[in-house]
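Q: What structure does this chain adopt?
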Amino acid sequence: MRDDSRESRHNGTDPHPAVWTGRATNRAQWVLAAGGAACLALGVQLAVSSNWTSGVAPLLMSVIGCVAAGLLMLFGTLAFVNVAVRIDGDALEVRCGHMGLPRRRILLTQVVGAEFAPEVTPRQWGGWGYRWRPDQGTAVVVRRGEGLVLRLGDGRTFTITVDDAEAGVRFIRERLRLTTGGAAAGA
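A:
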């Protein structure tokens, strides 16, 4: 059972919510996952019902190839079918897929800025998934559309495709002002 009384979700009524959550989903990747399952099934079918007339080596290579390709496609796509972002007063946490892996946690003390990106595409990053490009930084791209771009204190950037990214940017900017304003007031 989950206790929501200790955290407030962003619903627009509370001027300073304690937590902001966002998600993004890509249903098209289920097609790729189905292709991976088909490759895996073909590999199992070859291993079980082959009559072994062409030799063991070609059959073994076919079975291993189909099973390996199927597993890579299946798990590689299922890991990035969706992304969940949770921002609280301390950190931004990104979880990918149904198991929440890969996962990344960025402390808000490391964030120097947040911007809204109206159009993030897999083509900009070289495909879907957890991406790194030397000229652009790191990204979690699960679909085409709006995204949240964090500028980190070490000069790197981190981009996430997530629904309602503008609200996430406002939430982070508000937290950054509260943090810097509180530190300045205490000095």
